[in-house]
Amino acid sequence: MMYCSHCCGIEKEFDQKHAARDLKRYRKRGPGKTTRWLLDTITAWGLHGNVVLDIGGGVGAITHSLLEAGARKAIFVEASSAYMDAAQEEARRQGHFERMTFLHGNFVDLAEHIPPADIVTLERVLCCYPDVHTLVRESAARAQKIYGLVYPVEGPMTRIAWLVINSYLRLKRNPFRVYLHPTEIVNDLVQSQGLRQIFYKRTLLWQIVVFAR
């Protein structure tokens, strides 16, 4: 089970104010740069009739793009109630609501009830979760074709940034924390589920990795 303090921290950090801001930005600009790189790689493999599992999907940028590009349906998992509300609002606006199954909560806690999907995505999710081993194993095991990740690069910049962020969260008495999980461990966990890396790109802070079965 997710630690209660971490769960409460997610609700506090990813609140209605943040969700409204991100939804407004998404409607104005579309998916962000790292999201677009992930989407371009996934859509190149073809989406017709596929099922998507989007874990920690935020306002739904990945899900809506993949449904628009030909995916048949999507399972959308989000731990923040504010972001879940925003994603559902956007799904109705885009006409995708009936093709989406919405699950509110921690994916690891819900995993045994979630079926496999052709495409599984976690964008900027690993850095929000303390138990990377269980999160990656459970999510990668459900990827029948494609598994896409966006998570922090290990390096001085991210270490400093994460230290500053966590210090600020402590000052605010918010139990939420950000995490910097080693790339080697993440890769080993994914590959242990029978997936191989087919795409890699990085920015100063983020790495975009796609695996295929």
| Percent range for β-strand residues | 15-25%
Overall average pLDDT? 94
Q: How many separate domains?
A: 1
Could you say what the CATH topology is called? Rossmann fold
CATH superfamily heading: Vaccinia Virus protein VP39
Shape, please? globular
Largest sheet: 7 strands, mixed
How far apart lie the N and C ends? 28 Å
Keywords:
single chain, 213 residues, alpha/beta, Rossmann fold, seven-stranded mixed β-sheet, 9 helices, 7 strands, 22% strand, disordered N terminus
Explain what the structure shows.
- The protein has 9 helices and 7 strands.
- The chain is an alpha/beta fold and 213 residues long.
- The chain has one domain: 3-Layer(aba) Sandwich (Rossmann fold).
- A 7-stranded mixed beta sheet has the order 3-2-1-4-5-7-6, with helices on both faces.
- β1, α4 and β2 form a beta-alpha-beta unit.
- The radius of gyration is 16 Å and the shape is globular.
- Residues 1-5 have low confidence and may be disordered.
Blueprint of the fold:
Blueprint: H1 4-13, H2 16-29, H3 33-43, E1 51-55, H4 61-68, E2 73-78, H5 81-94, E3 100-104, H6 107-110, E4 117-123, H7 132-140, E5 143-152, H8 156-171, H9 183-191, E6 196-202, E7 206-212
Parallel strand pairs: 1-2, 1-4, 2-3, 4-5
Antiparallel strand pairs: 5-7, 6-7
Helix pairs in contact: 2-5, 7-9
